[in-house]
Amino acid sequence: MRMNSLETTKLGVNSKIKKSVLWRWFFTSSVSSNYEKMQALAYCYAVLPFLKVTYKNKPEALQKAVLNHLQFFNTNPWVAPYILGINIAMEENSDENTEEAVTSIKTGLMGPVAGLGDSLFVVIPWTIFGAIAANMAIDGSPVGIILWIAVSVALKMISIPLFRIGYTSGTKLITTIEKSLKLLTESTSILGLMVVGALIPSVVKTNVVLDFKQGDFSMRGQEILDQIMPGLLPALLVGLVYWSLKKNVKPIYLILGVMVLSIVLATLGILK
């Protein structure tokens, strides 16, 4: 008996097949991206073992399913297994309406999942832990690279429970915890900004060595700036770069500009 609901009893995909789908996505989710269909090729390659089992001895249905999964797909690669799980749960209980339903699910979820995934599992943790790891590396500590690798692996492993949740829970997850995720995203974004802001003076270093003299009184420029606000120049520089990025200035231009400015000011004896 065939059913088209995610809440019905499933036919039971072999555990080995499910692992194959997940690991295929792990290793190919980004390597085959292209401007025409983005991650579609990787998505189709990932679900192919499942499709071969589901449509065994049905070559026409298999061909149709493969073409369906080659349609445009683009989302956060670490959270995409949630959608993979949903699609497998739907397609193993397939009927004549499955193709349209699978396409609708993929199209409808890849946007919200991308937003949540990019915020919660990429931008925020990479910004926080990346800044901490970089700061450790600057100080010569090998813990920085170890921390970076550990966090990256831990985030990647989130795909495993998400795949299982997608397979067992269907589309309910997004709607039931949407408000909670929004609050969590905003909270962690604020935390990330605070951490990065606090790290600016220790990561971006400027030392004004120009001396200001008035009679017998002499004072170094950096001491004057520190009395106004410690870390003033790094904060201003980061603010200027951020403003420039918002004005769509290319990052490579900003990098070259900062390098040239630093060299010129150091040559003139203003900065050290």
TrEMBL record:
<dbReference type="InterPro" id="IPR004704">
    <property type="entry name" value="PTS_IID_man"/>
</dbReference>
<dbReference type="GO" id="GO:0009401">
    <property type="term" value="P:phosphoenolpyruvate-dependent sugar phosphotransferase system"/>
</dbReference>
<protein>
    <submittedName>
        <fullName>PTS system transporter subunit IID</fullName>
    </submittedName>
</protein>
<dbReference type="InterPro" id="IPR050303">
    <property type="entry name" value="GatZ_KbaZ_carbometab"/>
</dbReference>
<dbReference type="Pfam" id="PF03613">
    <property type="entry name" value="EIID-AGA"/>
</dbReference>
<dbReference type="GO" id="GO:0005886">
    <property type="term" value="C:plasma membrane"/>
</dbReference>
